[in-house]
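Morning - zinc ion inputs below, output right after.
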Amino acid sequence: MTIQTTDRYCPICGKDVAEANFKRFGEWACSEAHAEAYVNDVRARKLQMVAPEPRPADRPARRGCCG
Ligand SMILES: [Zn+2]
């Protein structure tokens, strides 16, 4: 098990992360724009995990319940 503390790569574009200003969900992004893009990506995955089969007729669409 290797813990890498020096190698940080943006999960969006894969570039080296030089600044430690854009950390989201334990991942470092190269810029605020990519940090937000990563946040959106993680949220989308969580939604898929929670509701793998969307059933619009069964439940109303709700957003923003979890902050
Ligand atoms: Zn990036």
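Note: The pocket of zinc ion is lined by residues 10, 12-13, 15, 29-31, 34 (CB under 6 Å).

O.
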